[in-house]
Amino acid sequence: MPIATINIIEGRSDEQKEKLIEKVTQAIHEAIDAPKQNVRVILNEMPKQHFGIGGESVKKMGR
Amino acid sequence: MPIATINIIEGRSDEQKEKLIEKVTQAIHEAIDAPKQNVRVILNEMPKQHFGIGGESVKKMGR
Amino acid sequence: MPIATINIIEGRSDEQKEKLIEKVTQAIHEAIDAPKQNVRVILNEMPKQHFGIGGESVKKMGR
Amino acid sequence: MPIATINIIEGRSDEQKEKLIEKVTQAIHEAIDAPKQNVRVILNEMPKQHFGIGGESVKKMGR
Amino acid sequence: MPIATINIIEGRSDEQKEKLIEKVTQAIHEAIDAPKQNVRVILNEMPKQHFGIGGESVKKMGR
Amino acid sequence: MPIATINIIEGRSDEQKEKLIEKVTQAIHEAIDAPKQNVRVILNEMPKQHFGIGGESVKKMGR
């Protein structure tokens, strides 16, 4: 019964998020032999000013 | 000083969320004898396209 | 499909933890009307030197 | 490669959040000698009705 | 710069965990086009008495 | 009432962890003007085989 939480920067399309859920679920299933229907994936979208790398937000870096 | 984080699908009313905080705090207090005023509860609301079960988002499933 | 994570200080018995899982699950079920079998609870036990309150670990406080 | 997640109540300015990322990164660097560029900080803003203290949300308390 | 945290029940081999890190990283890379070297994966192993399904720990269920 | 969770690789001394709690608490206090006694810090130590960078665990990299 694996539960994955994935933090990503905001800006991905719904199609990309759907693909992310699908592929990560498949990857967990293959790696540790957990039944696919038991896998849970939670996506957490971070606004650019809420994620810091090396002391600066991604927003400030202008990425 | 227990700290609980609860992930729930979006769509609950403020009244339900208040009840959730109240009842979970009471449950923790009763189970492990922690003073109620020391319990913290964080609710995290997930949009339907951000929660995947068995490789599909709840949104895609049409729930 | 609510998923709760509860951080507690180390030192509770297995019986207390079992009660914690049971009571928190029941509380979530009652508060937001989620089927009990859909609720997941993850306990995370913190060593006393890994939890800080007001800038000091619980270990250093001698609690 | 330390990764910090900080839950804060909604209502801080972008300037305060930027300062939070900067100062926490510096603090981690100084305390455990991790290179600053390796530190990641994730801010998670909680709406007042999503954070409970002692069984009541911060919203209900009127804070 | 995606960061994934995966909760799994204790008992997997180091080889399975290595495969889990590798495959989930690849899946994230493919789904949202993030450079592989930017992906971080944190595994969190749960003892059986620390994970509850439907109000009972996995340990109590005898799984 | 800020709550910080910091993931670090295993291997730091108790003294370093104490310093980490102290300095991060101070940093949060200064950045967003939260009273120090309200700040909570949770340290989460990751074994080297449980943290992956770019698809490989820190253990496998031999760091």
Automatic annotation (TrEMBL), chains A, B, C, D, E, F:
Q: Which UniProt keywords apply?
A: Isomerase
EC number(s) recorded for this UniProt protein: 5.3.2.-
Which InterPro entries does this chain map to? 4-OT, 4-OT-like_dom, Tautomerase/MIF_sf
Pfam families of this UniProt entry?
A: Tautomerase
In what residue span(s) does the 4-oxalocrotonate tautomerase-like domain sit? Answer: 2-60
The UniProt family comment states: Belongs to the 4-oxalocrotonate tautomerase family.
Identify this protein by name: Tautomerase
Organism of origin:
Arcobacter roscoffensis
